[in-house]
Amino acid sequence: MNNWVCEKCGYKLEADTPPEVCPSCKNKCAFVDNTCYTPDCAGQPVDDRIGKK
């Protein structure tokens, strides 16, 4: 599964694909995949640097 963050409100969830409508802000938002694929995440499944404004 991937980790996703809403570009509008910052809501985070784990799913294979992001939802059409954000469960938090109830808007149709773009979701950014912030799953960590590099070793510098220190074993964490999410890279919190991705998706920050």
Describe the protein in words.
The protein has 53 residues and is mostly beta strands. It has a single domain (2-41), classed as Single Sheet (Rubrerythrin, domain 2). The protein is 0% helix and 23% strand. The protein contains no helices and three strands. It has strands at 2-6, 12-15, 31-33. It has a three-stranded antiparallel sheet, with no helix packed on it. Strand 1 and strand 2 form a beta hairpin. 11% of the residues are buried. The mean pLDDT is 84.
CATH topology: Rubrerythrin, domain 2
Q: Which CATH-level-2 architecture? A: Single Sheet
β-strand number: 3
Structural class: mainly beta
Q: Poorly predicted ranges (pLDDT <50, ≥5 residues)?
A: none
Task: Write out the strand line-up for the largest beta sheet, numbering strands in chain order.
Answer: 2-1-3
What is shown here, in short?
This protein is an all-beta fold. The chain has one domain: Rubrerythrin, domain 2, CATH 2.20.28. Helices cover 0% and strands 23% of the residues.
List the helices and strands and how they pair.
Layout: E1 2-6, E2 12-15, E3 31-33
Antiparallel strand pairs: 1-2, 1-3
Which labels suit this protein?
53 residues, mainly beta, Rubrerythrin, domain 2, three-stranded antiparallel sheet, 3 strands, 0% helix, 23% strand
